[in-house]
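From the pipeline queue, job 12 of 40. The input is one protein chain; the requested action is below.

Action: predict structure.
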Amino acid sequence: MASSSDSPSRARRGLIGVAVVAVLLAAGLSGAWFYLAGRLDGELTRAIEQARARGTTVECPDREVFGFPFRIGFRCDSLSVVETRHRQIKASAGAIRTAAQIYRPNRIVGELDGPLRLSGADLPPLDFRWSLAQASATFWTAGLDHFSIVTDDPKVALAAAGGDGQPVMDAGHTEVHARRRDGNLDVFTLMKGGRLVFSGAPDLPALDASTDLTIDGAADWLSGAATGLTGRELFAGRHVSLRSLLLEMDTANAELSGDFSFDEEGRVSGKFELAIAEPKRIADFVTVVLPKLRDVAAAIASALPMAGRRSDGRTVIELRAKNGILAAGIFPIGKLPSLE
């Protein structure tokens, strides 16, 4: 039988063993963190160099890898991107911070400080501001697998030198989500409390809007395959399943769903279902936001009493597009703009 004096010895040995294991784990964690930090810094440098070779200059001054010991990420005092080969896009913003948990380095979250100034060959200079802008991205073997961007109190203005510019619109909240699924690309967007605030804007209620769709064969867009391509080049011959495009303004609302595709000339063909409550107000809003669809919106509002049916307090109409020409049954509606 062991003497009682052996018990303290065993306890001391046990404590020493635990301490040794803890020290080894801490050393291993520290080593892993600094290894990953070096890899991250090297990958960022390589990505910036590769972007420059493709005609895009990225500036991230005072870059620092941080987060030891349980997180890892990088931050910069500001961020600027200049693309010169295609659309001549220039973007600049405030500080950027990203981080990932050390045990899940493939999922990155980040924040960006405003304002964001954006301009391009086909864009007027725009000024974006917000109270909070957060993003998350998940990477897997094929590259970017999923990303989300969420903003609170976003505001858009036409930029002006030395000032805040001319306000265009604002909202209470926005979200954009995209993910790979079986080689396809799922996209969901949401806007709550959107308002037009430019000079002379119509006095409309705040708008809630959302889209939910799948683009066939477009999963590689998340890996950069869409870079530099026009809308026509991206969508030619590609099938799109629109589960919902919903607009809501108080009691007025419109929801569009259907399956469609575009030909090589950017013309749309497909079948749609459109459900509308208070079509005149919806048509007025579409006319302001999308002037190219003014005649189409007015024609749909006129055709609803003749070609529509009532369902759940809304008028539902079946629409068909062929080579860019829209019709409701035997009633022609008009020509939809082609992709450019």
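Job complete. The chain has four helices and 23 strands.
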